């Protein structure tokens, strides 16, 4: 048990407020008090000085493929189809389960260092290692074994069973910090019948369904040509996207589809940097938000980003739409903070997470604000337009310190970096 | 005199090549050798170990207003006109020369920390302090006293004379590290007659002319309505934009204007983040490049960015056009590195600067690449898609170390941060 503690003299920012100088009290995994000014000392409470720091909720990354950190920088500036066929798929063919686990560990190190406390992860290999890494790290995670269903019916059903079993095992992890999700890859890689089966199994097991959808214009056109409907409209009608489902990307969607997503209670993971880098396009974030769809942020994999830093993602989410619409108020820093914190946590199934508020899980980070690029004033814009993941000094989940003063406490970072370099060399040699 | 030194065991990247492990030799302000592998020890040469670092040319920021770091975060997410009229102009009215100098010092600290070795600066106040700060910092700079010419003819001529004198004094600085520029603010704040006078005086003194132009759609429309031509076409025709002139922004321009800019030898400063944040739009970078116009990168001021980190600017320059055009190869990392290094240095009047090459000025930076977000491979994409200014550990200009292991050697950073906080509090109180 961690003794109760106070973090004092700290600037506190979450999606709904700013306290220029205040404190939080943490006990039994929870935030038990938040206030302005300086609380009186109490016996048995440790006191941490937060001077010249910002305390904010830990960030939630609602979409990614952690093993692909090993493919970071393997191919930049190529069109999506060539990127996949000439670079990513051949590399992935040589990426075995052990390498995938190293990639996941590297991703967790990177995410933790940059202030993420809660992440989604999907990959097609055996993911026992990912569950283990996530547990060891102390972070919260929603894990899925991805499914591409091109094969024979029997093979598909086996894949589905494995994926459901894995998700169930995550959902019932002893720490309570894991969730499971059912993640058929996309409408263009899974036949509708398979999606129906996956949805039925997911519902049976009370698991949410996540799916890549409407990522590229080509995908939408081809789906329309084949089915007479867009993928989003189709999956809404088929009852596959329902309350709590997560539509990842949703770049090319119409107003009526947005209305459908809202009506059905579907969440969206907005991945602006991956969508830009792969030339997929620019998702209509301001319109998604005006439809009051719960939108969160995802980095996607390091192969199409190329970092897992949600501060970069926040900046891009806030920036790009202003330029596209030629409206400086198309997006607001405060809304983007909401997307990256409480919206993300809720979308991944973590309640009481994402605010700095009494009764909430003590999942928060500290940021060194005593740096030239964050001077002279602190507000939501500081987090979105000035801060970077490199400014994060401390990370806590359920009150437990995972990083203090830039040092990781739960992961052997040096070993992980070293293994990642070795695995990547082997991977390169095999290509 | 700095004794000669070797930086060895370092990855070297500039706009034209990558050496995975090599060395550079520096003597008398110059790079005197670059090679692969490990050079034999030599008497009298200091040896610096560059293991797990990337050595690249220092970055050049071709547009900014350094005093405005004090206005960072004073107003985000407002449309340009309200941003200027309700927030920036009232704040600037209280920004006196001394405060401006503090803002400039803060900007130089921020730029140096994030790997910039060469910068442009324009502001309308007395800028003796900026010249002094730039000289003391050890960086290279192109400085200008900006001119808005709404006033009476006599007042305009006085402004012009002051600006020319200032630019001349920079151009002849004893260190040789300063340049001067003549910077009438924009076609919509300076009558054509004034621009002609400014251009004539600039030519007489062999000084380049810099100007904000075609930043917003509104500006272009209003100029056309008034003069029957777009601002770029107009200034090209009037002989104001000529060889070596710098067109800042150039967001809303046509193909024929690009042809004109190329024909006249005009340079462009691309400021993607400021253009996005203010809702100005998205400059046609791929088209500017395909016209072979020399394009460099600028951050603009910290009030519309909100950092002066050129790594962020590189990432945005490489990212946004891919999404807008839905083409992942719309922009290339290597081209963006060229823009941020050698193109920028040349545009600001520094020759033999911007490559890691024998005979070039020893202006370079070191980046810590032994971090999760830069593992496992190093290439141009690492600099553009993964690195941040916070990863820069060392900065050298003309062979002189300005930052070593994250510590600034020429600036009293703590004092500057402290003064900036005080000045900003005074500024806020006066609003």
TrEMBL record, chains A, B:
Gene3D superfamilies: Metal-dependent hydrolases, Urease, subunit C, domain 1. It comes from the Bacteria. The keyword Hydrolase applies. Keywords: Hydrolase, Metal-binding, Zinc. Zn(2+) binds at residues 63, 65, 212, 300. Belongs to the metallo-dependent hydrolases superfamily. MTA/SAH deaminase family. It is an enzyme of class 3 (hydrolase). InterPro entries: Amidohydro-rel, Deaminase_MtaD/DadD, Metal-dep_hydrolase_composite, Metal_Hydrolase, MTA/SAH_deaminase. Its cofactor is Zn(2+). Catalyzes the deamination of 5-methylthioadenosine and S-adenosyl-L-homocysteine into 5-methylthioinosine and S-inosyl-L-homocysteine, respectively. Is also able to deaminate adenosine. This is 5-methylthioadenosine/S-adenosylhomocysteine deaminase. SUPFAM superfamilies: Composite domain of metallo-dependent hydrolases, Metallo-dependent hydrolases. HAMAP family: MTA_SAH_deamin. Binds 1 zinc ion per subunit. It catalyses: S-methyl-5'-thioadenosine + H2O + H(+) = S-methyl-5'-thioinosine + NH4(+); S-adenosyl-L-homocysteine + H2O + H(+) = S-inosyl-L-homocysteine + NH4(+). It holds the Pfam family Amidohydro_1. Substrate binds at residues 92, 145, 185, 215, 300. One of its GO terms (molecular function) is S-adenosylhomocysteine deaminase activity.
């Amino acid at each position: 048990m961690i003794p109760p503690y106070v973090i004092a003299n700290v600037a506190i920012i979450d999606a709904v407020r700013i306290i220029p100088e205040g404190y939080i009290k943490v006990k039994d995994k929870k935030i038990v008090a938040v206030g302005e000014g300086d609380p009186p000392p109490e016996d048995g409470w440790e006191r941490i000085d937060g001077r010249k720091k910002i305390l904010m909720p830990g960030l939630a990354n609602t979409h990614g493929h952690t093993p692909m950190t090993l493919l970071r920088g393997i191919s930049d500036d190529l069109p999506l189809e060539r990127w996949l066929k000439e670079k990513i798929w051949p590399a992935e063919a040589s990426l075995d389960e052990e390498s995938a686990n190293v990639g996941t560990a590297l991703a967790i190190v990177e995410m933790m260092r940059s202030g993420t406390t809660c992440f989604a992860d999907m990959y097609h290999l055996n993911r026992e290692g990912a569950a283990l890494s996530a547990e060891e790290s102390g972070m919260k995670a929603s894990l899925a074994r991805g499914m591409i269903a091109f094969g024979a019916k029997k093979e598909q059903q086996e894949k589905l069973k494995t994926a459901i079993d894995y998700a169930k095992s995550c959902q019932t992890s002893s720490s309570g910090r894991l969730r499971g999700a059912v993640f058929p890859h996309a409408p263009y890689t899974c036949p509708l019948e398979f999606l129906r089966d996956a949805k039925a199994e997911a519902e049976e097991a009370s698991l949410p369904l996540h799916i890549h959808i409407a990522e590229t214009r080509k995908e939408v056109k081809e789906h329309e040509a084949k089915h007479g409907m867009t993928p989003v409209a189709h999956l809404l009608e088929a009852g596959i996207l329902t309350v709590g489902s997560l539509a990842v990307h949703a770049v090319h969607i119409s107003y009526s589809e947005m209305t459908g997503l809202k009506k059905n209670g579907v969440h969206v993971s907005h991945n602006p940097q991956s969508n830009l880098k792969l030339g997929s396009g620019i998702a209509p974030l301001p319109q998604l938000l005006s439809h009051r769809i719960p939108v969160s942020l995802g980095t996607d994999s390091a192969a199409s980003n190329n970092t897992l830093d949600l501060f970069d993602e926040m900046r891009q989410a806030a920036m790009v739409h202003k330029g596209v619409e030629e409206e400086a108020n198309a997006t607001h820093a405060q809304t983007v903070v909401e997307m990256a914190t409480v919206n993300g946590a809720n979308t991944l199934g973590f309640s009481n997470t994402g605010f700095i508020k009494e009764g909430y899980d003590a999942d928060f980070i500290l940021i060194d604000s005593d740096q030239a690029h964050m001077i002279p004033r602190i507000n939501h814009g500081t987090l979105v337009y000035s801060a970077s993941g490199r400014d994060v000094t401390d990370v806590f989940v359920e009150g437990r310190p995972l990083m203090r003063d830039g040092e990781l406490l739960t992961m052997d970072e040096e070993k992980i970096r070293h293994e990642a370099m070795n695995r990547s060399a082997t991977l390169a040699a095999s290509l």
